[in-house]
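This protein record is not my work; I was only asked to verify it. The record follows directly below this note.
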Amino acid sequence: MEIAIYLQPIEIPDYQIVGETQQRRMGDLIQSYSMGSSFPDLAGVQLALIGIRESSLSVENYGCKEAPDAVRKYLYRLYAHNSRIKIADLGNINAGFQVEDTLFAAKSVIEYCLKNNIVPIIIGGSQDLTYANYMAYENLGQIINIASVDCAFDLGNAEETFNSKSFLSKIILHQPNFLFNYTNIGYQTYYVDYESIKLMSNLFFDVYRLGELRSNIEEVEPLVRNADLISFDISSIRQAEAPGNAMASPNGFDGEEACRIARYAGLSDKVTSFGIYEINPEFDRNGQTAHLAAEIIWYFIEGYYQRKGDFPHLQKDDYKKYTVGLHDHDHDIVFYESKKSGRWWMQVPLSDQYAEKFQRHFMVACSKSDYDLANTNEIPDKWWQVYQKLM
């Protein structure tokens, strides 16, 4: 297979535990590109694990290149509860002679998966690999949304070279640009300068403070449901639960919240790639962080196999429609509630001029609280941000 030239086989971890039941585990279901075996047949495969052993551009967290095999050790031993799982482990992309070589290999493998309707689950490596994930969408002619679970925005400075703390600037400045929206989930204000927050506002990007989301974690669900690409920095989880990162800090999401976010991402019909980054075994304690990362991936897979197929470009008969009139505003806000899942969307007015280009983005995932807010004559922020982009 054409992408096999970029990938190296792995040594399958010993996932059987002495004295425990021999019920089916993830390792029993994953088709692995392992030592002495041929590259897996991807016909019918729906999800693909891809390890990327690259951390040359990581800021103060170089050892994160060792994460893919450390995470597999725990992922393979978790129990599988769905007989429909069709997942392959494509092995590892090793660091190239230059970083550009690794990025090209990662882009090529991820692009192949996307073109073949396989959702890649990327285990980094440093978070600058999100740029390679983004570039994989370029040849698809698809304008996308990115959601990043991160304690900071990773914008860097204009003069700064490309690295794990400045990759977002490279994405924003790339031409042709095919980023419609960026959402930060869980930033911590003391790690973000005021000018960066102002820039996010000027670009009509969505950014949400950690405390705001932890007080109502269910509100993360529509944020990830709007995304095509999810980038998860393990340093967004507090140090007590994820010590395996050189930049780990006392505050952040807890492990349960991180798993819920991953499950929300898996449930979304729109999410087509998921990556988890910056796990550094050198700083880990008894594999605690690698173990949590494995459970985060498990929850993403669990969510994927519970997708409802109710992304609202399908039959409108499957939805309840609500129209809310606003005083002193030219447009009503139209809401749709799925009869299958109870999830909500808002429709943003879109002229015929932009209908084809932005057809995937004028239906904005939201929650009932946005509908309730509109009924008080307040415009929901999620609606307004998209309206500003499309007007």
Observations:
- The chain is about 30% helix and 20% strand.
